[in-house]
Amino acid sequence: MDGPGDGSTRVAVAALNRLGSAIWHAILRDARLLWARIPETAADFAARTLKEYLALKPYLDRYDRDLFRQSAMTIDRELIAALGAT
Question: For the chain, what are the domain ranges?
């Protein structure tokens, strides 16, 4: 069984150039860079990614809020319908 606390080490290799800013940010936030052919290029990539993510963050936050509201309204309608049917 692999997982935290069992002494195993997980390594994921990813080509990041085809992913979006939000995923790049999550990877840079949660992962650790083990090797880069050119460290300056990796640092530039991290800085560019953070800048792009921070520019998009207000829109991502609004999307999350709107999605949450929409799902909450759907649940409320379903609950009202279920209570009305009983």
Answer: 16-85
